[in-house]
């Protein structure tokens, strides 16, 4: 310590001199006043300086292509707020090839990239790449829920460093181990980053279920270390892993992946099959109704319900019956009834 003091002029590296605050007395200056000022000098301690050094210079470029919807735009903004070591850029034209992104990363001084590619204004793909040498992976993004949409109760400090939690399946298969390393280098905030805060108050989880990767962000509560979800959340369906950055030889291809176009086609075919089935049922009913049914002349079982009854003679009247006498009603008229009531 003494050698450092002699070498640095009596100060530790990165520590500034203490500032002196003087109280100036009113009136003219005199030797007595100067002595009094020296006595009134207050030593202000310097601000605390972190002795750490920013070594990990990971920078992530987060941007997208043209044609994205509002939900994707909010998702990108949430990821930028979640990652203080990220940078933004303008939207890339659809006609440009993906290899141009490596040049954009070089201009922005970024060595990682999250690129959101929109197709048909309804399908969203995400590229995660180690620029410029690779590897890179392409995902289909599903079930997107942003921070403004979820309205979760969790909260964390902006710029704080997260813990990354991975499913045990990431260590069992080779392609998942490669993706785990990509996620660690991309989503982990470098230590002593200028825009980061020296606190760990949230955790990002990557869970594998249904052959997909589920992204969740939780707050760590200090009292009982419980987890409360903050957001955003989305699901990544792996398509391919490439050796290079945004291209190159294919290292892994997901055989269980089904493109959104194929999925929509299957839904349309299933709906058309249901319509055809209903039409066939209607036609079969019409054919049954059009068929001529054979008439049944006599039924053997009708005899069962025949019961013997006594025969009555048939009387035929040849003369007309005598007319009946009409009885006159002796009910008084309404006027007479009213007069009787008045009496």
Task: Note the main attributes of this structure.
8 helices; elongated; disordered N terminus; single chain; 343 residues; eleven-stranded mixed beta sheet; alpha+beta
Folded structure, characterized:
- Strands 3, 4, 5, 6, 7, 8, 9, 10, 11, 12 and 13 form an eleven-stranded mixed β-sheet that branches. This protein has a two-stranded antiparallel sheet with strand order 1-2.
- It has eight helices and 13 strands.
- The protein has helices at 2-7, 31-40, 70-82, 100-107, 147-150, 174-187, 260-290, 334-342, and strands spanning 19-21, 42-44, 60-64, 86-88, 112-119, 123-130, 136-145, 163-166, 202-209, 212-220, 227-229, 233-244, 247-253.
- With 343 residues, the protein is α+β, with helices and mostly antiparallel strands.
- The model is unreliable at 1-27 (pLDDT under 50).
Describe, in short, the structure shown:
By secondary structure, the chain is an alpha+beta fold. The protein has helices at residues 2-7, 31-40, 70-82, 100-107, 147-150, 174-187, 260-290, 334-342, and strands spanning 19-21, 42-44, 60-64, 86-88, 112-119, 123-130, 136-145, 163-166, 202-209, 212-220, 227-229, 233-244, 247-253.
Query: What is the end-to-end distance?
Result: 136 Å
Helices and strands: which structural class?
A: alpha+beta
Shape estimate: elongated
Number of strands: 13
Mean of the pLDDT scores? 84
User: What is the radius of gyration computed over CA atoms, rounded to a whole number of angstroms?
Assistant: 45 Å
Q: In sequence order, what are the helices and strands, one letter per element?
A: HEHEEHEHEEEHEHEEEEEHH
Percent in helix:
25-40%
Low-confidence stretches: 1-27
Residue fraction in strands: 15-25%
Please outline the major beta sheet: 11 strands, mixed
Our count of helices gives 8
């Amino acid at each position: 310590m003494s050698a450092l003091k002699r070498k640095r002029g009596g100060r530790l590296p990165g520590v500034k001199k203490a500032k002196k605050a003087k109280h100036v007395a009113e009136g003219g200056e005199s030797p007595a006043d100067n002595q009094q000022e020296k006595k009134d000098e207050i030593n202000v301690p310097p601000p605390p300086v972190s002795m750490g050094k920013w070594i990990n210079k990971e920078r992530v470029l987060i941007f997208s292509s043209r044609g994205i919807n509002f939900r994707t735009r909010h998702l990108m903004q949430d990821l930028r707020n979640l990652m203080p070591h990220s940078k933004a850029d303008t939207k890339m034209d659809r006609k440009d090839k993906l290899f141009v992104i490596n040049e954009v990363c070089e201009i922005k001084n970024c060595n990682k990239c999250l690129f959101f590619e929109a197709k048909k204004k309804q399908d969203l793909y995400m590229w995660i790449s180690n620029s410029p040498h690779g590897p890179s992976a392409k995902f289909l993004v599903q079930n997107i829920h942003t921070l403004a949409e979820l309205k979760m109760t969790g909260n964390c400090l902006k710029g704080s460093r997260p813990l990354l939690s991975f499913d045990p399946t990431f260590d069992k298969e080779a392609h998942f181990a490669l993706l785990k390393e990509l996620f660690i280098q991309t989503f982990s905030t470098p230590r002593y980053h200028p825009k980061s805060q020296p606190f760990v108050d949230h955790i990002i989880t990557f869970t594998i279920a249904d052959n997909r990767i589920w992204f969740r962000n939780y707050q760590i509560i200090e009292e009982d270390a419980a987890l409360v979800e903050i957001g955003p959340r989305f699901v990544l369906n792996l398509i391919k892993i490439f050796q290079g950055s945004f291209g190159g030889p294919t290292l892994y291809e997901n055989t269980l992946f089904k493109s959104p176009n194929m999925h929509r086609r299957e839904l349309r075919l299933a709906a058309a099959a249901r319509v055809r089935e209903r039409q066939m049922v209607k036609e079969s009913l019409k054919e049954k109704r059009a068929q001529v049914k054979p008439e049944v002349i006599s039924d053997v079982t009708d005899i069962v319900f025949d019961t013997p009854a006594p025969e009555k003679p048939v009387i035929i009247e040849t003369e007309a019956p005598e007319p009946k006498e009409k009885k006159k009603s002796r009910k008084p008229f309404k006027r007479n009834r009213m007069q009787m009531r008045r009496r």
